[in-house]
Structure formats: structure tokens, C-alpha cells
Design goal:
The protein is of the alpha+beta class. The chain has one domain: Jelly Rolls. The chain has eight helices and 14 strands. A seven-stranded antiparallel sheet has the order 2-10-7-12-5-4-3, sandwiched between helices. Strands 1-9-8-11-6 form a five-stranded mixed sheet, with no helix packed on it. α1 crosses α4. The longest helix has 19 residues. This is Phytanoyl-CoA dioxygenase family protein. Pfam families: PhyH. InterPro entries: Phytyl_CoA_dOase-like. It comes from Elsinoe australis.
Length: 318
């Protein structure tokens, strides 16, 4: 079995020199299509990074102490999660854009960040009017060592080879990313697996297999962002002894794709998105105020519905 490899950010301009302009190399859509992920060096200024670290520390404390009900609890891997931490604690904070979330305006500025919007537009080959708001959550240091099983986000492990291939052949309708506020080596992926059904080895592997042929550890420095196909075969390994605050977001294309709507609405975002207002975001992007772009994207999510009966991508049990 081949040894695992590691991936670091693609070469680019000196860190923080041009924080709002993503590198044009490599070609984001090509890299995402070929490898299943693409890692870009820091998109945040030192001031942005410091502000987001302070804000995420505060909301993480609220979540750990039961003062924010939208959380990811240990040892549950997939939604739905309970609204209280329980004895084993949490590994994530949900709904950073919720109007009741402390620092929601700061989080909105990071979600609708020019570098994020530009990268998503390149990946999806989309104009601002084509984009729709989806999810924005926070992945944090767990209260106990924790690992996700090897999985694809929207294809259950029980899927047949034919079902996998049919799902994987669908066009790209969204972009998903992790933006690390601290150095982060939690994400492990099998490059290229987003284009094919699982091999016999992968199907036969234990859910928490230590090594899978060809897997890579994605090593992120603070401020790096990785975009990845959510149906790449991947896992997460989280240490209670290593600080973590990684912003976990997605944006999509307007449309009627049922599987994608389920993947988004199963998190409960449809229940509160009508109450958001992003119109005060003042930064310009592509000749338009980001506040106007954001409001258009928010309306696109409202049009998806509230999601009470969409079901669960992974069955809801784990």
C-alpha cells in the first residue's frame, strides 16, 4: 500500500500582499475537476484573521456552554444533531449567518468575501446573479479526539456502484470550502475519487481505516482556503489537543436539483434565512456592492423552501 502524501497551498503571491484577489494559478475549476480539491494560500489580511479568531472563540464558548443551540455534538457525525452539548461536548458550531448569532455581520463579511465570491464564480463559471447562498458553519477543536468515517457527503455508503456513478456524473452545482483560522491538518482526501465509484479496496475498508490507497492529508496554514468536491472520498480526524477554528461554507447555483436542496436544507438554514439582511455589506465586487449580491443570493436560498421534509443525506442516524 502506498504511503499517504501531503498537500500544501499552491504557489502564489506572498501571503497577505493581495488578500482579496485569489491566485489565477492553478485553474480552479480544472483542479477541482481533476483532483477533487484545490488549496489556495491565505486570502485574509492579518486584521481579518485576528477579528475572526476573536469572534469564533466567543461563539465557540457559547456553544460549549449550552448558550447556542445550533451545534455539532460528539460523537454524532451527520445531521440532525441535538441542541445541547451533552457529556461528550461538541465539534462544530452551526449557522454563522443566523441573525441571532453574535458577530453575524463579521461572519457574513467573511462568507461574502471578494476572494471567496471570485473563486466560487470561477469554479462554477457563474455570474453574481447565478449564485445562491447555502451553508456557513464553524468546525472547532473537539472536546475529545474524534474521527469521521470515510464518506462522500451526499452519497450513502450503501450506494451501489451504478448509483455512485450516476450521482457522480451530475454537473457541478455548488462549491464547498474550508477556511482555516489556525493551522489545520484535519482533512484527508483520496484525489480523483470524486470522478469514479469506490474501488473494491475502498468498499471493503473499515469505516475508520487508518490508510487508504492514494490518500492525502491537506495541510492548511492559517488563512488558507481549500475548495473541494463534497463527494470526494474523505474523512476528518480531529484532536482535542490542537486548536481549531475552520470556517466551513458552501455556495451554489440557482436551480431545482433535489439532491443539492436536501444537502443544504437538512441543516435547518431554511428556517431562518428569511430574517437575514445582508444589504449593509459595503465592499464592491465585479462592479456591484456585495450587499446587493448577498441579498440576491439570500433570496435564492429562500426560494429553495424551508426544508421540513427533505430527509437526510446520510440517513440521520450516525
Amino acid at each position: 500500500m502506498a504511503a499517504p502524501t501531503t498537500t500544501t497551498a499552491a504557489p502564489g503571491p506572498p501571503r497577505h500582499d493581495s488578500p482579496h484577489t485569489p491566485t489565477t494559478k492553478p485553474d480552479l475549476r480544472h483542479e477541482l475537476s481533476t483532483k477533487g480539491y484545490v488549496l489556495l494560500p491565505s486570502i485574509l489580511t492579518p486584521t481579518e484573521l485576528a477579528s475572526l479568531r476573536a469572534a469564533t472563540a466567543e461563539v465557540t464558548t457559547l456553544a460549549r456552554t449550552g448558550q447556542w443551540p445550533h451545534i455539532r455534538t460528539l460523537p454524532k457525525q451527520f445531521p440532525p444533531w441535538p441542541s445541547t452539548p451533552g457529556p461528550t461536548g461538541i465539534w462544530g458550531v452551526q449557522h454563522l449567518l443566523h441573525p441571532s448569532m453574535p458577530h453575524s455581520a463579521l461572519f457574513a463579511a467573511s462568507y461574502f468575501h471578494p476572494a471567496i465570491l471570485a473563486s466560487v464564480s470561477e469554479i462554477l463559471r457563474a455570474s453574481p446573479d447565478d449564485l445562491v447562498m447555502e451553508l456557513y458553519n464553524l468546525l472547532v477543536r473537539p472536546d475529545a479526539d474524534f474521527q469521521l468515517r470515510w464518506h462522500r457527503d451526499d452519497i450513502p455508503p450503501t450506494a451501489s456502484t451504478e448509483e455512485e456513478v450516476a450521482r457522480l456524473q451530475k454537473p457541478i452545482l455548488h462549491a464547498q470550502w474550508n477556511l482555516a483560522l489556525y493551522d489545520d491538518e484535519s482533512l484527508l482526501v483520496v484525489p480523483g475519487s470524486q470522478k469514479r465509484a469506490r474501488t473494491e479496496e475502498e468498499r471493503g475498508a473499515a469505516p475508520y481505516e487508518e490508510m487508504i490507497e492514494g490518500m492525502e492529508t491537506v495541510r492548511m496554514k492559517a488563512g488558507d482556503v481549500v475548495f473541494y468536491d463534497n463527494n470526494i472520498l474523505h474523512t476528518g480526524r480531529y484532536s482535542k489537543d490542537r486548536e481549531r477554528a475552520t470556517l466551513h461554507g458552501s455556495m451554489g447555483l440557482r436551480g431545482e436539483e433535489t439532491d443539492r436542496a436536501r444537502n443544504v436544507l437538512q441543516h435547518g438554514v431554511g428556517a431562518w434565512v428569511r430574517d437575514c439582511d445582508f444589504s449593509s455589506l459595503e465592499v464592491n465586487w465585479e462592479g456591484r456592492r456585495i450587499g446587493d449580491v448577498a441579498e440576491g443570493m439570500r433570496r435564492g436560498l429562500v426560494e429553495m423552501g424551508t426544508g421540513e421534509h427533505v430527509g437526510w443525506s446520510q440517513g440521520g442516524e450516525e
